[in-house]
Amino acid sequence: MLPFVLYFVAAMVTGFHLYSLLSLIVYGAGFNLLEVTALFGSFLLLIAAYVSLFKPRVAAQIALVGALTLWCFYGPALANLARSKLAKRTTTSQYMGRIPQFMPSMSGWPIPGMNHLSLLPRSPSEHPTDNRC
């Protein structure tokens, strides 16, 4: 009965997480094939939970395959998280001089009446040499 509970709870938790990630596609979020692969692994854990009631050895083999497909999704995410937490943080600037007393506002910099957004290049539709009708 313990394998059934473990496989079932793992399948439900990971399945809900992956289903919620995949449901964001409706709102325009990106799609990744690893999410579908991991959802298949969660489904395999659910099958293993059912099979564990009758044939525990076969259920363990199905659960192993399901867990490996889940690690295809969760493994790289955990590795990236660990890499970012353990990375040595360095300073981006070595400047140690005095702090300037006057900082120009963005509304009057670099030319009065211009802001930092007006320095960006125009889109092709606003370009003055555009000859489209």
Give the key terms.
single chain, 133 residues, mainly alpha
What can you see in these coordinates?
The protein is mainly alpha-helical. 54% of the residues lie in helices and 0% in strands. The mean pLDDT is 78.
Radius of gyration: 27 Å
Question: Total number of β-strand segments?
Answer: 0
Largest beta-sheet characterization: none
Q: What gross morphology would you assign?
A: globular
Strand content is under 5%
Q: Helix count, per DSSP? A: 3
Could you list the spans in which at least 5 consecutive residues all have pLDDT below 50? none
> First CA to last CA: what distance?
73 Å
Could you estimate the helical fraction of the residues in percent? 40-55%
SSE order and pairing:
Layout (H helix, E strand, L loop, with lengths): L1 H22 L9 H19 L4 H31 L47
Quick structural gist:
The chain has 133 residues and is mainly α. The protein has three helices and no strands. The chain has helices at 2-23, 33-51, 56-86.
